[in-house]
From TrEMBL:
<feature type="transmembrane region" description="Helical">
    <location>
        <begin position="123"/>
        <end position="142"/>
    </location>
</feature>
<feature type="domain" description="EamA">
    <location>
        <begin position="152"/>
        <end position="280"/>
    </location>
</feature>
<feature type="transmembrane region" description="Helical">
    <location>
        <begin position="181"/>
        <end position="199"/>
    </location>
</feature>
<feature type="transmembrane region" description="Helical">
    <location>
        <begin position="36"/>
        <end position="55"/>
    </location>
</feature>
<dbReference type="InterPro" id="IPR000620">
    <property type="entry name" value="EamA_dom"/>
</dbReference>
<protein>
    <recommendedName>
        <fullName>EamA domain-containing protein</fullName>
    </recommendedName>
</protein>
<keyword id="KW-1133">Transmembrane helix</keyword>
<keyword id="KW-0472">Membrane</keyword>
<feature type="domain" description="EamA">
    <location>
        <begin position="4"/>
        <end position="137"/>
    </location>
</feature>
<feature type="transmembrane region" description="Helical">
    <location>
        <begin position="205"/>
        <end position="226"/>
    </location>
</feature>
<feature type="transmembrane region" description="Helical">
    <location>
        <begin position="67"/>
        <end position="86"/>
    </location>
</feature>
<feature type="transmembrane region" description="Helical">
    <location>
        <begin position="148"/>
        <end position="169"/>
    </location>
</feature>
<feature type="transmembrane region" description="Helical">
    <location>
        <begin position="263"/>
        <end position="284"/>
    </location>
</feature>
<feature type="transmembrane region" description="Helical">
    <location>
        <begin position="238"/>
        <end position="257"/>
    </location>
</feature>
<feature type="transmembrane region" description="Helical">
    <location>
        <begin position="92"/>
        <end position="114"/>
    </location>
</feature>
<keyword id="KW-0812">Transmembrane</keyword>
<dbReference type="Pfam" id="PF00892">
    <property type="entry name" value="EamA"/>
</dbReference>
């Protein structure tokens, strides 16, 4: 069952990797980033709401509703807003590195809130992941000597924390509700919070096609597949495997716009793959150990 979980999470990472290239087409068509985020949330809500209605899964317990709505504010609006501010204050490279501190935050949160053991392989995989993403993101500007302000660091770390909440929230509530049910309530809240920060304007059809792809492929399909995988994996393992996203995104950028890795970027890509391999191998080892008593008693 864990192998199925790894497959789902890797597939979700590939779909998430499309966010950058597809968003770039929307930006080039004249739609600003926060408006892209708004319409992506709204259109994705249509898909999740339709599925929730078709399955008859539209109810949330009154006691859980505040947490679900808070997830919309923090996990959707918070992530979009803090990441955009980090990019503006410190650039996309720094923002990307700090966003993908999420596995480290997940490891800590999972230990505190979910009771997951913080094993040595988990810690090693998290460290490899963060260093690898740093290599891919900072490689082009490694020799520039660029310094960053406090605001850039704080907004970037906040984006990593809010991104980490996707894993923790999903692990805590997926046992009670389906993915469509959760996003039925969270997405419109996030869109509402983001809406005051841009002006609605007319855009060409290319922008709307890009937003539709983001909403259906990189949001509806990606999150549905990811949370299906999260049912079979610990939150920390899932978050580390999902960090294949920047590697896949970099490959797409190479084929679409002839962007290449720096030597440091290639090292970073290798470290990310090593972290994924370490996660999978450690999971297989733990399954073998768990199966030993039952075999002995057979």
């Amino acid at each position: 069952m864990q192998l199925k979980g790894y497959f789902y999470v890797i597939l979700a990472a590939v779909l998430w990797a499309l966010i950058g290239p597809v968003s770039r087409y929307a930006f080039e068509a004249g739609m600003p980033p926060l408006e892209v985020a708004f319409w992506r949330s709204c259109l994705a809500w249509v898909f999740f709401a339709s599925q929730a209605r078709a399955l008859g899964q539209m109810r949330v317990a009154r006691n859980d509703l505040p947490a679900v709505l808070a997830f919309g504010v923090v996990g959707i609006a918070g992530l979009f807003g803090s990441y955009a501010m980090a990019v503006r204050a410190g650039g996309a490279a720094l923002a990307s590195v700090l966003l993908y501190t999420a596995p480290a935050w997940v490891a800590v949160m999972s230990r505190l809130w979910l009771g997951e053991r913080l094993s040595t392989p988990k810690i090693a995989a998290v460290v490899l992941t963060i260093v690898g993403v740093a290599g891919i993101s900072l490689g082009p500007d490694w020799s520039g000597g660029k310094s960053f302000g406090v605001a850039a660091i704080l907004f970037g770390l906040l984006s990593g924390i809010t991104y980490a909440l996707y894993y923790i929230f999903g692990k805590r509530y997926l046992g009670r509700y389906s993915t469509p049910t959760l996003f039925l309530y969270a997405l419109p809240v996030g869109a509402l919070v983001v809406s005051p920060f841009f002006r609605f304007e007319a855009h060409p059809w290319q922008a709307w096609v890009a937003v539709a792809v983001l909403a259906f492929v990189s949001t509806y399909l990606a999150y549905s597949i990811y949370y299906a995988g999260l049912k079979h994996l610990e939150a920390t393992r899932a978050s580390v495997v999902a960090t294949l996203e920047p590697l896949v995104a970099s490959l797409l950028a190479f084929f679409l716009w002839d962007e290449t890795f720096t030597p440091l970027g290639y090292i970073g890509a290798a470290l990310i793959l090593s972290a994924v391999l370490l996660t999978v191998v450690d999971g297989a080892r733990r399954r073998r150990i768990a199966a030993m008593p039952s075999r002995a008693g057979a």
